[in-house]
Automatic annotation (TrEMBL):
Cellular component GO terms held in the UniProt record: plasma membrane
Annotated localization: Cell membrane
Membrane protein topology class: Multi-pass membrane protein
Main subcellular location of this protein, as a coarse class: membrane
VTT domain span: 35-149
Family membership: Belongs to the TVP38/TMEM64 family.
InterPro entries attached to this UniProt entry: TMEM64, VTT_dom
UniProt name for this protein: TVP38/TMEM64 family membrane protein
Membrane spanning stretches: 6-26, 33-52, 58-78, 129-148, 154-173
Any Pfam family the entry gives: VTT_dom
Keyword field: Cell membrane, Membrane, Transmembrane, Transmembrane helix
């Protein structure tokens, strides 16, 4: 009987890859049990530290983005519902840049799949979408994983500075478009 327990303990000690694999897969499962991405990334910082937590979160979020790409392509009705939500939140004809999507992913209450739809609009090809998704997930994974590691050291002043910085980033990374009305463009002098 003791040999069986020794084997189990040896297997657990030798299987250091199970916790990271479970964490990466949890990123995919978490959307079905309504756990925010931010919370999972913070837990990654607590469990694995900044470097490995960021890497594991990036792997999980990239797999999640790839899965959502295929699901949204298979179910156009779901895609249309998210596009309607996008129109309600961001207005008619708003096309967000990859930088804006990256900043919006840092905001905890913005729907992750909604931002995936915005990214699919910007980059419809799978390769471009995955590359852009990786880049848009990088600040999210890094920021909240580091936040998870050092959460006890933050003061309210630092939190306010972080929020102000996010607002400035979102404003700076916007797509600058000038709208010219039809009549102004083809103005006929009288």
């Amino acid at each position: 009987m003791d040999d069986r327990y020794a084997f189990v303990f040896t297997f657990i000690e030798a299987s250091g890859w199970l916790a990271p694999l479970a964490f990466i897969l949890f990123h995919i499962v978490r959307q079905f049990i309504f756990i925010p991405v931010v919370l999972v990334c913070i837990v990654g910082g607590i469990l694995f530290g900044s470097v490995f937590g960021t890497l594991y979160s990036l792997a999980g979020l990239t797999l999640l983005s790839a899965g959502s790409y295929f699901i949204l392509k298979m179910f156009p009705g779901l895609n249309q519902k998210l596009l309607n939500l996008k129109q309600k939140w961001f207005g008619q004809g708003a096309v967000l840049t990859v930088g804006q999507i990256a900043v919006l992913r840092l905001v905890p209450f913005v729907h992750y799949q909604l931002l995936n739809v915005c990214l699919m609009e910007r980059r419809p090809a799978l390769g471009d979408y995955l590359k852009s998704s990786f880049l848009a997930n990088l600040p999210l994974a890094f920021f909240y994983t580091v936040f998870g590691e050092f959460i006890s050291d933050f003061t309210p002043g630092i939190i306010a500075m972080i929020l102000l910085g996010l607002c400035l980033l979102f404003y700076t990374l916007r797509e600058k478009v000038k709208v010219i009305k039809w009549r102004e463009f083809f103005h006929q002098p009288s």
